[in-house]
Amino acid sequence: MKRLPPEYYLHPDVVFLARDLLGKALMTNIDGKGVTGGIIVETEAYAGETDRASHAYGGRRTRRTETIYQKGGVAYIYLCYGMHHLFNVVTNIEGIPHAILIRGIKPIIGQELMAHRTGKRPEKLQTLNGPGKLTKALGITTRQDKTFLYDNNIWIEETSLQSNEKQIISGPRIGVDYAGEHAQWPYRFSLLLTG
DNA sequence: CGGCCGATCCACT
DNA sequence: GTGGATCGGCCGA
Question: Which residue is nearest to the C1' sugar atom of C9, using CA?
Answer without folding.
Answer: A64
